[in-house]
């Protein structure tokens, strides 16, 4: 009871209005079928901000306050989280769910709060003149589809004519996103696309993999998330589908996706939008200044893993944008509108990434008010089961802009017409 | 003392048959109604509207609909999520195909379309009962979700398969889209809830409702005394689906604004509404409201107390929510199978005698 009392007092103190703070909501999911991916991402996201608070006293002298809110990958809870945190002065939302992103895009446009959907969400948000407050740098799904196809082109001496590619996808907005691009790429390069849907949450995929065993496509691409990935890789091993012809996107390429299948998963390929290296200097600092004193969001076992790295990278990009916004507007306590300006002027260079303690963690890119998409580059990584780690197989591969650009224009202008938006940069 | 019939003389049959025979109940009803319609809209903000009030009102409509079918007519249904999806997709198609149509017409037409679909899926109820019927409606649930995912006409061929509600207004006031004021959302839903609850109450105490209850209590006996099971069962399916369709339409247009069928209208939704009906009370209008309020408020209250006040980790609170809801369902099934409505009924019985019980 005494403990409860102390906690209540502590909570009341914490809830008292603090002076100037940078508020970052973290819409995480640590429960449900997608928790395996949600936990490391959220740990990385929060730990980086904790590190900034501990090491630098925040950003530009302003402390950062992270508000965690559990969504369970559920859109209704996502809306509740959004509404309950937006009044606190939230600077940027990172929902880590394409479904919740679609929900929040119109709301955030109306409220003027930026959303950063890194490598997920609505692809056509690349067009910053239509989607003023939505950013999806450094890459998006259509880039991912194109990067995967470019990698396959390279493997096949520049021609995919007559090849068959199966797309195993999560039957939701997330999984359906790349279909349009893959169809366009199929027309261009002459491969045939088979679409194989897996329903939420994806624990049952026998029939899908039976179809793959029967049709024996040359390559299988996968747009999976959560428990679906583990099941798919296990099923692929069961039907003896060669792992070096099986490519997951960047949400289907983390350690927990491949370890359940054991040695059978060796050689599994996946895309990634960031490099992985557990020995980045920034991880050393997180271990020493956040995990050791017991301030980590998790138990610290995830530090350096694929999704932890990506969560930390997301926080790093947010922190850089905050610093940029402070620089542009000459104030330290920025507003969401100023945050948007900072995001639209964000520039990641090799030297800056090195200064941050994560050399080459992501591609070099610059955001502008017209282009919210970054460079769109991605790399291919290969699972080494005996070493228990993903190893990069290629450098950053550039996507095919000639296919993606017209699709982005078409889709974003259709959205603009539906919602009476005149494309223009934000004031 | 306050709560009793004594001195409240009824001088006509109409008065004798009124919904609230006790004066205290009547005044209470009007006070709540006036407060909900006049006071709340001035106080409501975005958070209260979209986290608590609007979902509560919409779930109350869905629970009313399911209660008509399960509680009054005794036909078990696990297809609520699918029928809500029919309402949502009908609203979407109507809104995009006829941009001039006002939201009242859109929502009511969505209800009508769902009623037709529901009656069609109710046909097997003429031959099968109980668990077998539950399985047939379960098939409806999965078929409808599959259909809305598979046929791209339903989502106007959009790349992601998501549907999102365009801005629409009623009498010049926005009720859908991101720029809607909280009070407009709330009042729009409140109007539907009040009218539909009134309809449900009066249907269930009239001839139609008595036929449903006769079928529920013993279908063979009902048939012998002249209740046509075809009409009774299909009308229950149609009316229930009408309510659920309206709930689904509002859920999409007013509450969420963008919907992905597999995630929002999956089997989970069917169970959630069924739990509302079970916890609230089968065969009770008040129970539908109580169950909806309970299951909408519980996670939010737990979150506010656990995370915001006590500083507990968010995942622990989310798991606690599952534990508590599961525990409560078992508790109610064992201790009070008639749900919160029965508790309320008992309280009223006791209040009538207070302070001099026998």
From TrEMBL, chain A:
<protein>
    <recommendedName>
        <fullName>Leucine-binding protein domain-containing protein</fullName>
    </recommendedName>
</protein>
<comment type="similarity">
    <text>Belongs to the leucine-binding protein family.</text>
</comment>
<feature type="domain" description="Leucine-binding protein">
    <location>
        <begin position="27"/>
        <end position="384"/>
    </location>
</feature>
<keyword id="KW-0732">Signal</keyword>
<feature type="signal peptide">
    <location>
        <begin position="1"/>
        <end position="20"/>
    </location>
</feature>
<dbReference type="InterPro" id="IPR028082">
    <property type="entry name" value="Peripla_BP_I"/>
</dbReference>
<dbReference type="InterPro" id="IPR028081">
    <property type="entry name" value="Leu-bd"/>
</dbReference>
<dbReference type="Pfam" id="PF13458">
    <property type="entry name" value="Peripla_BP_6"/>
</dbReference>
From TrEMBL, chain B:
<keyword id="KW-0472">Membrane</keyword>
<feature type="transmembrane region" description="Helical">
    <location>
        <begin position="236"/>
        <end position="259"/>
    </location>
</feature>
<feature type="transmembrane region" description="Helical">
    <location>
        <begin position="130"/>
        <end position="148"/>
    </location>
</feature>
<dbReference type="GO" id="GO:0015658">
    <property type="term" value="F:branched-chain amino acid transmembrane transporter activity"/>
</dbReference>
<dbReference type="GO" id="GO:0005886">
    <property type="term" value="C:plasma membrane"/>
</dbReference>
<dbReference type="InterPro" id="IPR001851">
    <property type="entry name" value="ABC_transp_permease"/>
</dbReference>
<dbReference type="InterPro" id="IPR043428">
    <property type="entry name" value="LivM-like"/>
</dbReference>
<feature type="transmembrane region" description="Helical">
    <location>
        <begin position="183"/>
        <end position="200"/>
    </location>
</feature>
<keyword id="KW-1133">Transmembrane helix</keyword>
<keyword id="KW-1003">Cell membrane</keyword>
<feature type="transmembrane region" description="Helical">
    <location>
        <begin position="98"/>
        <end position="123"/>
    </location>
</feature>
<feature type="transmembrane region" description="Helical">
    <location>
        <begin position="271"/>
        <end position="296"/>
    </location>
</feature>
<feature type="transmembrane region" description="Helical">
    <location>
        <begin position="316"/>
        <end position="335"/>
    </location>
</feature>
<feature type="transmembrane region" description="Helical">
    <location>
        <begin position="27"/>
        <end position="44"/>
    </location>
</feature>
<dbReference type="Pfam" id="PF02653">
    <property type="entry name" value="BPD_transp_2"/>
</dbReference>
<feature type="transmembrane region" description="Helical">
    <location>
        <begin position="56"/>
        <end position="78"/>
    </location>
</feature>
<protein>
    <submittedName>
        <fullName>Leucine/isoleucine/valine transporter permease subunit</fullName>
    </submittedName>
</protein>
<keyword id="KW-0812">Transmembrane</keyword>
């Amino acid at each position: 009871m005494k403990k409860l009392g102390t906690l209540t007092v502590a909570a009341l103190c914490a809830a008292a209005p603090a002076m100037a703070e940078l508020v970052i909501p973290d819409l995480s999911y640590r429960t449900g079928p997608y928790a395996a991916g949600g936990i490391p991402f959220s740990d990385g996201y929060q730990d980086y901000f904790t590190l900034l608070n501990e090491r630098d006293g925040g950003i530009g002298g302003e402390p950062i306050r992270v508000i965690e809110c559990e969504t369970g990958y559920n859109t209704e809870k996502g809306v509740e989280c959004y509404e309950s945190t937006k009044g606190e002065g939230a600077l940027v939302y990172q929902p880590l769910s394409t479904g919740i992103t679609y929900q929040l895009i119109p709301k955030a446009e109306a409220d003027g709060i930026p959303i950063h959907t890194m490598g997920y969400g609505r692809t056509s948000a690349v067009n910053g003149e239509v989607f003023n407050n939505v950013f999806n740098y450094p890459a998006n799904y259509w880039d991912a589809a194109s990067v995967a196809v470019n990698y396959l082109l390279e493997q096949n001496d520049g021609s995919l004519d007559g090849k068959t590619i199966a797309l195993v996808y999560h039957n939701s907005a997330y999984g359906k996103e790349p279909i349009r691009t893959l169809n366009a790429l199929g027309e261009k390069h002459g491969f045939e696309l088979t679409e194989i849907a897996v329903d939420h949450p994806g624990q049952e995929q026998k029939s899908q993999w039976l179809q793959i065993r029967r049709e024996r496509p040359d390559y299988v691409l996968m747009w999976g998330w959560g428990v679906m990935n583990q099941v798919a890789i296990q099923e692929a091993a069961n039907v003896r589908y060669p792992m070096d012809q099986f490519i997951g996107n960047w949400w289907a390429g983390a350690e927990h996706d491949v370890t359940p299948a054991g040695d059978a998963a060796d050689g599994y390929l996946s895309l990634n939008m960031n490099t992985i290296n557990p020995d980045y200097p920034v991880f050393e600092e997180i271990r020493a200044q956040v995990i050791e004193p017991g301030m980590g969001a998790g138990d610290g076992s995830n530090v350096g893993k694929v999704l932890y790295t990506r969560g930390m990278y997301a926080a790093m990009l947010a922190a850089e944008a905050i610093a940029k916004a402070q620089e542009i507007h000459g104030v330290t306590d920025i507003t969401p509108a100023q945050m948007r300006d900072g995001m639209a002027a964000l520039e990641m260079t090799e030297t800056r990434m090195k200064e941050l303690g994560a050399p080459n963690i992501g591609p070099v890119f610059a955001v502008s008010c017209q282009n919210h998409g970054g460079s769109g580059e991605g790399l291919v990584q290969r699972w080494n089961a005996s070493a228990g780690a993903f190893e990069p197989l290629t450098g950053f591969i550039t996507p095919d802009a000639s296919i993606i650009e017209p699709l982005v224009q078409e889709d974003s202008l259709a959205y603009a017409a539906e919602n009476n938006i005149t494309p223009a940069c934000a004031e | 003392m306050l709560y009793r019939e004594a001195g409240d003389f009824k001088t006509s049959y109409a008065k004798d048959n009124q919904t609230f025979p006790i004066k205290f109940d009547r005044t209470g009803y009007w006070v709540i109604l006036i407060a909900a319609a006049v006071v709340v809209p001035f106080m409501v903000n975005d958070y209260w509207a979209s986290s608590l009030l609007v979902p509560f009102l919409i779930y109350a409509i869905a629970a009313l609909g399911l209660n008509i079918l399960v509680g009054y007519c005794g036909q078990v249904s696990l297809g609520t999520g699918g029928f809500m999806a029919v309402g949502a997709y009908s609203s979407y198609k109507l809104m995009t195909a006829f941009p001039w149509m006002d939201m009242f017409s859109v929502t009511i037409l969505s209800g009508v379309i769902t009623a037709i679909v529901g009656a069609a899926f109710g046909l097997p109820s003429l031959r099968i009962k109980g668990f077998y019927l539950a399985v047939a409606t379960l098939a409806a649930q999965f078929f409808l979700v599959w259909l809305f995912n598979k046929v791209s006409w339903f989502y106007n061929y959009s790349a992601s398969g998501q549907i999102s509600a365009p801005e629409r207004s009623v009498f010049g006031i926005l009720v859908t889209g991101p720029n809607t004021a909280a009070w407009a959302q709330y009042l729009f839903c409140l109007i539907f809830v009040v009218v539909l609850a009134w309809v449900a109450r009066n249907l269930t105490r009239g001839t139609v409702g008595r036929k449903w209850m006769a079928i529920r209590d013993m279908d063979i006996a009902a048939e012998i005394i002249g209740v046509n099971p075809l009409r009774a069962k299909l009308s229950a399916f149609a009316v229930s689906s009408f309510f659920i369709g309206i709930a689904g339409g509002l859920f999409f247009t007013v509450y969420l604004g963008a919907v992905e069928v597999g995630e929002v209208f999956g089997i989970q939704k069917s169970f959630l509404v069924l739990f509302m009906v079970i916890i609230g009370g089968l065969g009770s209008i008040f129970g539908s409201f109580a169950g909806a309020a309970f299951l909408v408020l519980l996670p939010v209250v737990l979150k506010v107390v656990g995370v915001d006040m006590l500083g507990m980790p968010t995942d622990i609170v989310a798991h606690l929510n599952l534990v508590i809801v599961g525990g409560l369902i078992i508790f109610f099934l064992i201790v009070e199978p008639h749900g919160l409505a029965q508790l309320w009924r008992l309280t009223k019985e006791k209040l009538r005698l207070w302070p001099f019980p026998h």
